[in-house]
Write a sequence for this structure.
């Protein structure tokens, strides 16, 4: 699942402490004094920039209107726990940069992405956006990866009056902040498993699973999804035989997976945030000779080649994942983006990560807002995005509610069939193929 | 047996087998910590480096994961010796422990960066015929990879124990562990011992890395989640105690796995750390730590 993925705290607290102590200790006393002076200076600059942002955000070389490049800032997790997704997001942003520049730029200005790494740190991401806005004087900001990082980043952007369009911060905790500047182009997280649950519920009674297991990571991305699906399934008579939350930092999934296997649940809905989690469960299921009739994971199977490499091609058959986009999505710009991706980064279309499309969509939405408002005034852009207008993206239509959730985003489910990643749900949606059910045995 | 009883027994078996793997990863850490007063924050990334080396040999040369250890263990021994020579021995003795955290963290960042450049950030996993197979014994499924990993841990940790307690070099190591200055006075080349210990500690990690890579998808960033657990094992087992690392790792995993089954996975760490605090309040040196600590 890509929509608003909220990788929460798989970075251990210990690691953050180490990072902090490392920075402080190596600089020494001179550095501490310098840092204090620098902090004061940055605050002063930030205050000035903040005052300016509300009216006329600066862009690089603003004295050459119409020709000078527009700087757009984003902090991404190019290292650390979210690095695989962060790098995919970077590629999406850069592909959009190439695309928009090839089509005349933004209001005639060439676009230049100013991307800095936050090392997957919620502390660093806030610092990065402060720097991007107050030091680099970017005209616009794009969001980071994960709800975990979107929350502190969006607060900074809000303080400076910047619109904050993002593609991976769809957890309810993001919208609970009620920040007027946040807009998530992706599918709201909590509804992601609905097509799958409704499909299970619609199966004839003889075919319908009778028991379900719900192991989930304690993550703002995964946790909101499972109760929604559980309610639908229980209403359809599918009994819950396992529902447990496990810590995001867990490094040994074997006992949890074995406990699920021991229940012999006929359907497993796994609240996972990444490939290693899904991979660990699948390996444990294989070792326990446990074959559920249906298996869906909230994230991981959408990671293309990374998922296949981790679990082995023979174990991918029948594995499902909710999502809002896949490389074969029937959209002209999406297809062009996938082609451009393969040309620039190599690989095959099926290996294009859904994160790429989310990032690309962010750029598309902002570009349409800039064009409609005729400038780079963030206040006008925020007002425009709240106007109820429907915009277009490689993931489909985008329309924001008052909280910045994308009302028009449609939930799909995808499934690996014979090594191919295919859209299967909703069953009557254009492009959907028949669900492979029951799931083939592992290794088949 | 009741269903819950079956699950508890399975959890105990899982904990013992997985504990062996963790002991392999932690053995180097406890050796380095015990002998040199160095907190090797890079231990996690060295595990990952070991996994990537096994990956290289497996994918590009088709070497079996266990056969590949013939190459990866010496390779990481050399890495350890180089790191010790380049960074550790230059640390002032008084500030060694504190500074070692920073230096080894820097080493971890450099290795992570190099791995990211070389392999990218996508997750990979080691594959072999025994990775997904299991043995069905008395109604329980025992994964082959964990059985082999536990056997490897027993052999390597036994060998390490023999080196430490049955050889002249081991006596030098233990002398250095007890009192560095006194060891020097009786003719032990403490610096040489430290270099070899660091190399050995990192070399053993190659084996831990291989099993880790065969049981978990990993990328260059995967080491960070490991280090806090490995440090916990070392402290619970007793600094410098290889057997303690095995005992502590098994204890930690059994407690966590049983709690995950009987109660909830979310409480696993809480219960384990409560046990850790209780043990340390009774035995501050850890389960197998020596009461006679280094006199410096």
């Amino acid at each position: 699942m890509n929509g608003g993925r909220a990788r929460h705290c798989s970075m251990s607290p210990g690691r953050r402490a180490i990072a902090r102590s490392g920075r402080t200790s190596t600089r020494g006393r001179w550095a501490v004094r310098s840092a204090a002076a620098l902090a004061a200076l940055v605050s002063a600059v930030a205050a000035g920039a903040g005052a300016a942002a509300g009216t006329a955000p600066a862009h690089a070389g603003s004295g050459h209107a119409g020709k000078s490049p527009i700087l757009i800032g984003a902090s991404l997790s190019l290292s650390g726990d979210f690095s695989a997704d962060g790098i995919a997001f970077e590629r999406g942003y850069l592909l959009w940069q190439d695309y928009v520049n090839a089509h005349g730029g933004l209001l005639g200005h060439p676009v230049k992405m100013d991307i800095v790494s936050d090392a997957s740190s919620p502390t660093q991401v806030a610092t990065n956006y402060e720097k991007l806005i107050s030091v680099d004087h970017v005209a616009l900001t794009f969001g980071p990866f994960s709800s975990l990082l979107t929350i502190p980043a969006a607060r900074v952007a809000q303080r400076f009056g910047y619109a904050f369009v993002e593609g991976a911060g769809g957890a309810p905790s993001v919208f609970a902040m009620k920040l007027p500047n946040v807009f998530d182009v992706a599918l709201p997280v909590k509804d992601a498993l609905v097509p799958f649950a409704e499909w299970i519920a619609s199966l004839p009674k003889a075919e319908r699973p009778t028991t379900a297991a719900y192991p989930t990571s304690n993550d703002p991305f995964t946790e909101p999804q499972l109760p929604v699906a559980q309610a639908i399934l229980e209403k359809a008579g599918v009994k819950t035989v396992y529902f447990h939350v496990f810590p995001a930092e867990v490094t040994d999934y074997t006992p949890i997976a074995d406990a699920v296997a021991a229940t012999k649940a006929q359907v497993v809905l796994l609240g996972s945030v990444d490939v290693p989690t899904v991979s660990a469960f699948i390996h444990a299921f294989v070792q326990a000779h446990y074959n559920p009739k249906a298996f869906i994971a909230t994230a991981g199977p959408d990671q293309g080649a990374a998922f296949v490499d981790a679990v082995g091609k023979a174990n991918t058959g029948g594995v499902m994942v909710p999502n809002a986009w896949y490389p074969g999505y029937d959209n002209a710009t999406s297809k062009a983006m996938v082609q451009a991706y393969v040309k620039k980064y190599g690989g095959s279309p099926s290996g294009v990560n859904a994160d790429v499309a989310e990032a690309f969509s962010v750029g598309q939405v902002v570009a349409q807002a800039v064009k409609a408002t005729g400038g780079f005034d963030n206040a006008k852009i925020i007002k425009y995005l709240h106007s109820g207008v429907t915009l277009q993206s490689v993931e489909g239509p985008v329309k924001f509610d008052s909280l910045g959730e994308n009302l028009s985003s449609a939930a799909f489910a995808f499934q690996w069939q014979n090594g191919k990643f295919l859209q299967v749900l909703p069953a009557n949606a254009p492009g959907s193929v028949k669900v492979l059910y029951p799931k083939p045995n592992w290794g088949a | 047996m009741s269903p819950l009883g079956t699950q508890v027994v399975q959890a105990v078996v899982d904990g013992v087998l997985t504990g062996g793997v963790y002991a392999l990863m932690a053995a180097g850490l406890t050796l380095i910590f015990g002998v040199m007063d160095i907190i090797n924050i890079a231990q996690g990334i060295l595990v990952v480096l070991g996994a990537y080396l096994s990956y290289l040999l497996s994918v590009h040369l088709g070497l079996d994961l266990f056969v590949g250890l013939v190459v990866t263990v010496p390779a990481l021994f050399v890495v350890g010796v180089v790191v010790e020579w380049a960074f550790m021995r230059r640390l002032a003795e008084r500030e060694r422990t504190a500074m070692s955290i920073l230096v080894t963290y820097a080493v971890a960042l450099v290795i992570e960066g190099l791995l990211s450049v070389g392999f990218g950030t996508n997750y990979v996993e080691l594959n072999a015929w025994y990775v997904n197979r299991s043995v069905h014994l008395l109604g329980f499924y025992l994964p082959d990879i964990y059985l082999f990993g536990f056997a490897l841990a027993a052999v390597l940790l036994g060998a390490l124990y023999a080196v430490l307690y049955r050889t002249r070099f081991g006596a030098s190591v233990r002398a250095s562990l007890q009192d560095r200055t006194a060891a020097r006075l009786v003719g032990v080349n403490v610096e040489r011992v430290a270099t070899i210990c660091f190399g050995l500690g990192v070399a053993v990690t190659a084996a831990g890395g291989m099993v880790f890579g065969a049981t978990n998808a990993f990328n260059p960033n995967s080491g960070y989640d490991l280090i806090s657990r490995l440090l916990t094992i070392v402290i619970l087992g007793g600094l410098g105690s290889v057997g303690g690392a095995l005992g502590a790792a098994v204890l930690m995993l059994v407690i966590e796995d049983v709690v995950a089954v009987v109660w909830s996975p979310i409480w696993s760490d809480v219960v384990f750390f409560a046990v850790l605090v209780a043990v340390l309040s009774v035995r501050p040196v850890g389960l197998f730590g020596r009461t006679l600590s280094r006199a410096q």
About this structure: Residues 191-323+411-425 of chain A form a domain with the Rossmann fold fold (CATH 3.40.50.2300). The radius of gyration of chain A is 22 Å. Residues 1-65 of chain A have pLDDT under 50 and may be disordered. Residues 392 and 440 of chain A are 37 Å apart (CA to CA).
